[in-house]
Design goal:
7 strands, 11 helices, binds NADP nicotinamide-adenine-dinucleotide phosphate, alpha/beta, Rossmann fold, 46% helix, binds hexanoyl-coenzyme A
Length: 281
């Protein structure tokens, strides 16, 4: 696997370990799955679209990794508990949970429907809590484990048109601190990674502008909007890649992260520190 050739981690670092990654079939989750699998973990990819996670798992297996797929909607506690029970029964353990699944879109809060608000809060915040709570008994029984939540940086100063997502991710950061304290006695560590902008397909879809008055969707608008951004707005002058986030997740899950819990690691090329204040109108 290509990640192994360039990886800073030793081959076989996660041999014998099981990593459950929500939203593992696309974007950042897929990047995390590729790296962990290349380092020996059995990765379980879980999301709503079974065909998507099955295809991703098959690609990982085809390159010599160990992977399987599960259908789950992280908003549904019954589905989440069933998934965790089945994974621990079939693979014997769960060493790492990555709460990566999320939903997001730009929308003005003035007109955001109740269901739109609920959808994002439930996928991001409830989903993170439900999955974490469900894996806890498994991790307790095996003597410990690691949970990594994927957060963001936009709530550090507020971000117009993202009331739902910023509220959810702020909640995730709070959970990271509180649950890390509650669960340390079980040797279960919880940390977060806050990515900067990474142009995944999910982001492109979420932020493609709505059709103009004549009904035309400008599919290149996001590229135009992105043009020049990395050079001017990101101090390290490039977009992030899923591998940037995967490296931090792997470090946190490795023995190198053994004394880290309750932390949020920002991986964003310096973007949020350098950002000018958000527009107020
Ligand atoms: C306003 C919207 C909307 C939009 C959906 N809704 N899109 N409202 N503006 N653009 C409303 C719908 O009208 C509906 O409300 C409610 O949200 C639920 O929509 P459904 O499509 O029925 O929900 P569901 O099928 O559950 O899908 C959830 C979703 C969807 C969040 C709406 O976008 C999704 O599945 N997203 C997953 C992928 C994703 O978002 N990836 C991006 C992650 S990127 P009503 O009232 O009509 O019923 C990310 C990066 C952030 O997080 C940082 C970037 C720099
Ligand atoms: P993405 O590819 O759209 O990832 C979202 C994943 O979540 C998809 O695989 C989706 O799969 C899954 N998902 C959505 N709703 C779900 C549900 N209810 N149950 C189970 N799975 C669900 O986008 P991404 O950019 O890689 O984002 C990954 C993570 O990084 C998210 O937490 C996001 O908020 C965070 N993040 C991204 C950026 C960025 O710039 N890309 C920046 C900051 C933070 P299904 O559709 O099959 O369910």
């Amino acid at each position: 696997m290509t990640t192994e050739q360039t990886s800073v981690f030793r081959p076989g670092l996660f041999d014998g370990q099981v990593a459950l990654i929500t939203g593992g079939g696309s974007g950042i989750g897929r990047g995390i799955a590729d790296l962990l699998a290349s380092l020996g973990a059995h990765v379980v990819l879980a999301s709503r679209k079974l065909e998507r996670v099955e295809a991703a798992a098959a690609e990982i297996v085809a390159t010599g990794g160990k992977a399987s797929a599960r259908a789950v909607d992280v908003r549904d506690t019954n589905l989440v508990r069933t998934m965790v029970t089945e994974v621990s029964a079939s693979l014997g353990r769960i060493d790492l949970l990555v709460n990566n699944a999320a939903g997001n879109f730009y929308a003005p809060s003035e007109t955001l429907s109740e269901n739109a608000w609920k959808s994002v809060i439930e996928i991001d915040l409830y989903g993170t809590f439900f999955c974490s709570q469900a894996v806890l008994p498994v991790m307790k029984a095996q003597g410990g484990g690691s949970i990594v939540n994927i957060s963001m940086t936009l709530h550090y100063r507020g971000w117009p048109l993202m009331a739902h997502a910023t509220a959810a991710k702020a909640g995730i950061d709070a959970l990271t601190k509180t649950l890390s304290l509650e669960w340390a006695k079980y040797r279960v560590r919880m940390n977060s990674v806050a990515p900067g902008p990474i142009p995944t397909e999910g982001v492109r879809k979420a932020f493609t502008p709505p059709p103009s008055a004549d009904g035309v969707v400008d599919v290149f608008a996001i590229e135009k909007a992105m043009d020049g951004y990395a050079k001017t707005m990101i101090p390290l002058q490039r977009w992030g890649a899923p591998a940037d986030i995967a490296n931090m997740v792997a470090f946190l899950a490795s023995p190198g992260g053994a004394w880290i819990t309750g932390a949020t690691m920002v991986v964003d090329g310096g973007e949020w520190l350098a950002k000018p204040p958000a527009p107020t109108r």
